[in-house]
Design goal:
By secondary structure, the chain is an alpha+beta fold. The protein has one domain. Helices cover 31% and strands 32% of the residues. It contains 2 helices and 5 strands, in the order H-E-E-E-H-E-E. It has helices at 2-15, 59-80; strands spanning 27-28, 34-39, 43-53, 94-100, 106-116. A 5-stranded antiparallel sheet has the order 1-2-3-5-4, covered by helices on one side. A hairpin with a 3-residue loop joins strand 2 and strand 3. The radius of gyration is 16 Å and the shape is elongated. It comes from Vibrio hippocampi. This is Lipoprotein.
């Protein structure tokens, strides 16, 4: 019974955290979040891995934070190539997965969006 309970606890913890989901070479921000960029025919895709401490769980806050991360990366990337892009709201961004570690209360969100020039 004890082994079964230990195994269940490990599976529960593993299911609460997500690993980064990237489309290219990961770039770390000074806050410790990550994003990656991949060119497409008419623009580019940005994938982000965003983390934040949440005493009280709020998926919405995590989704908004991940959207801000990839929008900032997209804005900078487009500006470097002399282009501009429309920035989506969090409702339009694809949330690849998300989870919250029950021990550390860190929420991790993986999100992605394809920007058009």
């Amino acid at each position: 019974m004890r082994k079964l309970l230990s195994l269940w606890f490990i599976v529960l913890l593993a299911g609460c955290s997500t690993k980064p989901s990237h489309v290219g070479e990961p770039i770390k921000t000074k806050e410790g979040d990550e994003f990656s960029i991949q060119n497409t025919e008419q623009g580019f895709t940005v994938a982000g891995h965003y983390s934040e401490y949440q005493f009280v769980r709020s998926s919405h806050d995590g989704f908004v934070g991940c959207t801000q991360l990839i929008n900032n990366a997209a804005k900078d990337y487009a500006a470097k190539s002399g282009q501009s892009v429309s920035l989506p709201k969090w409702e339009d961004v694809t949330i690849v997965d998300h989870g919250r570690d029950i021990i550390t209360a860190i929420m991790n969100v993986n999100c992605e969006y394809t920007y058009q020039y």
